[in-house]
Structures
1.
Amino acid sequence: MDRAPGTSVRLKLTLSYAGFLMVAGVLLLAAVWAFLLRYVPDRALIIPGSTGTSLHGVFPVRSSLLHVFAPRAAAVLALLLAFGLVGGWILAGRMLAPLTAVTDATRLATAGSLSHRIRLPGRRDEFRELADAFDTMLARLEAHVAEERRFAANASHELRTPLAISKALLDVARADPERDTGEVLDRLHAVNARAIGLTEALLLLSRAEQRSFTRERVDLSLVVEEATETLLPLAEEHGVTVETRADLTPAFGSPALLLQLTTNLVQNAIVHNLPRNGTVWVSTGPAPTGVVLTVENTGEPVPPRLLATLTEPFQRGSERVRTHHAGVGLGLAIVETITRAHDGTLTLTERPAGGLRVTVELPAADPPPDRRRTA
């Protein structure tokens, strides 16, 4: 990429260095003139009672001394100008070398290469901090692009599956007109519902990632109550008992997104549980740095290698219990995205007796004005 025509920063710095050096030289010569030459007489002095033989050497006068001093002063200024230009050019080049490395890395990133790193050596100064910050930005951008590509590939695959199934069902129905259309319609309805659920989950995930929501005061205990009441039929169907212990827990965020977060966690805890007589514990309360929502469930032990991948998009946990309510594989991915959008932290740990413990820590909302202590 060629730079647009114009004076470079290196040339500007060089001219600045040379100009400063010239100004310093002129001021120095002016000081010599002001404090030295002004005391030199402008004509020869005649001392009364003295003879010419009593004077030793030549007594300088201002005109002759200035005649001798001016050419040499001009030569000194010319030397200072040449020294300032050459030294300033070299010094400016050395000072701007880190910026050249940053510029080269920027051009590589613009061309699509995000794996390049500056790794500027030397002592930590402003240029080193700039280069390190740029390297950090490139690393995060590279990870984000890789995640987006992987997510797009998975989403394309997941959306293509119900479409392919629908096409196959329609082809079979068209090839066999006498086939029971009720069965085909039921299967098409189920496939279509799954595609709609996947699309809605993708839209919710995108909305949470963009943080395009209004924040307000939310009581997590009421959110937990609403989520558990909604999922009570599902828990009864799976023979799972849901126990809640929700204290007044004021948080700050989107009520709809926090309800979706809680619903996803409770639904996962119900679905991925013991076949019968399972239990889910949901609790909220204060934390040292905010508020916390905890969802635990009984179940089979979760392998550590699987635990680390549960928050990835379209990861359904194939080694866990699978049912027709297993979802589209975006439950915990949405939970993590919503938590991150609310500046919170998500922690997944294995319960010693089997099952999973999910902890969501969120910033606490400020107490209402009537409950704040007055100074």
2.
Amino acid sequence: MRILIVSAQSDFRQQMQAACLRYTKTLVSLRTAESVGQGLELAHQFEAQVVYIDLTRNIEAGILAIQQLSGVPNRMVVVSIDKLTTEFVTRTIRAGAREVLVQPVQDEDVHQILDKFAAINSNTVDVQPARNGKVVICFSSKGGVGKTTMACNLAVMLQQRFGGNRVALIDANTQAPNIAPMLDLRPTRWLRDAVMEYRRLDNEMLNELMTVHEASGLHVLAHSTDNPLGLDFSEDQLSKILLVSKGSYDWTVVDTFPLLSTLNLSMMDLSDQILLVTEPVVPSLRSARYNLEMLQKAGYGKDRIKVILNRFSNFRGNVSPELVAETLNWPVSHVVPYDVHSTIAANSGQALVNMFPDSNVTSAVSRMVDGVTGVPTPPPPPEGVVEKALRQFRNWLDL
């Protein structure tokens, strides 16, 4: 469910955002706008299905906005104001509002409105394009923890598992992109091209902007630091790209810039899972704990955030996964072992899961894909004596 919150009051926007994210009956994607003009633009670009608009600061501009917003079929416009009057209710309902929300905001009232929208539209056809694909965000506010490596290998293994043109990898690390060199790609189209055309971006155009990773068939929207146009990236632009990707691909994996910014939060709102990558080192764990605290305040819970403990090695004095979970006050979903093969693969411009399919890291990524998709790894075919001996010999040469 795509929800837009329009209000000049930061407190109202934060309360509404938290209340909507606590709605558990369906996946919620959120955007916020500080002005009516910005709200009208975002409602179009974001293809908002439910619009909460606060008219406390400017009723007259709000009335005109309601008339435009309510003109889209299967969209519910909800109005709110700090001092509710009969005249206000009458005018806004006549303008096209479907519901009135009393302030201060209560979770129960917000959720009842969302329930009504879901019930009303359960038997109607959505006029907006289907956005059924899943988005997985790889994030950490500390650089160097293996976030990009995780995103690349996760995406490649998803492609191996599902095949076809069903998996996309987007490099949204807008300041320090590394996916293209890590997969040894030579793109001719980039993320900036999608950003420049985001207003008319559709499934066909996005597909044309993708670079195919020949070794796996994965579709990659790479980003280059070579940006002669000085193009800035905004929340609307990256959100639109993700929305189109959700309609084009079954799975979209996104690598992010290591900063807990509004840009990253806007993409997280569109995600199904957030993989918070950390490693068993005190600075990384402190950063991860701070990230978890901030993400919880933003309304994300254990159903969306999964902690990935990367580069773990079992030696005396190291921090165990159990201690990591205790320190973070959050369960560790997956442990990825330290393996020198990760460095070899990165320096070779190859995905580790392709270059070293029998490595412990590949097995860990496979279990991660099981967790992300909810589909267990299919059992391997029976291995003959000769195949087993050859595999063991190859593994021995790799050591």
3.
Amino acid sequence: MVELTDGGPAAHHAYPCEQCGANVEFSAGTGTLTCPYCGHTQQVTAVVREVREHDFAALASRTRTAAPATQDYRCGTCGAVTTSDHLSQKCGFCGSPMVAEVEGLGLVEPEAVLPFEVDREAMQGALRTWVRSRWFAPSALKKVVSAEQAHGVYLPHWTFDARTRSDYVGQRGEHYWVTETYTTTDSEGRSQTQTRQVQKTRWYPAAGTVARDFDDVLVAGTGRVMPEHLAKLSPWPLQQARAYQPDYLAGYETLRYDVEPETGLEVAKREMAPVIENDCEHDIGGDVQRVHQVHTSYAAVTYKLLLLPVWIATYLYGGKPFQVLVNARTAEVVGQRPWSAWKIALAVLAGLLVAAAIVWAVVANGDGGTAGALAEAAVRWGEPVVRESVGAPT
């Protein structure tokens, strides 16, 4: 049974095991709360509502109080007090899972969560595959696979829906061909007149209006993880998101959003812009298009705060931290990697030796024996041999 601790801002959910009294955690892939000690499983508390979109205009019109920078957790197991800016984490003293009661913190409350599906074992398998594919990486990269190096984190994201109408001004280009005469000089210095077909383009003014409905434009709600890495973890199966339930967070870290929804909407509009411009080009038609101006109006703008699951592994190499992310729904791996100078040097040296061997074979055998020498050199260096023959096939 999930319990709620007492105390205003310090209130949080605790998860005692119904069988042994230890603490249960959400188990990736099973959809249950599992005790790591006795193995007892408990069902996630049912939420009888669907994931909803919220009116952005209503959010923008009301005054939101500033959320405290941190909140205090008082562990229901050992009594220790932990100050944190996370929405969920484990007690730093006894490891018990704690999930903040979001209501009353002055934050936009999460609407949906995509629960962890890839467990630790599957995550390690994905990391092993990724590490093996990193050519010229130092051997130390293998340490990232270690179970102790990775932790599960829910990262906040905003999604935005909007109905757009865009007025544009541009040009439509239509190709045509003309015959062009030009003069060349042959090898004996004589001038020759020749013709060729040259493509030209006629440009015509164009203007019009396009409309498009956008659904679930995803914007990262945190700046703590490199945005380019988060973008590469897409696509996410957002249609599988479930209504927010604190139980899903038990045993994992959950970051607060530090990108406000107003800022997130501006980022979403920048994501929409190239799609709208492409619609304008399609509407212009012709062979080529130029779009000079686009004015877009946005209606029926809605939003929601969504928590997405990621395994994060960080390791040090050469005194510099490197970060690797694993999508905890699809097992997609994205991350930074160092380069091994000595492995690169060996590869360059091997390439030079192969080139030197081929040159030596050509010189030693003369022009008449070039093909055989190349084949011999290739075989000597373990390369596949390809021969071309003229005449009847053999």
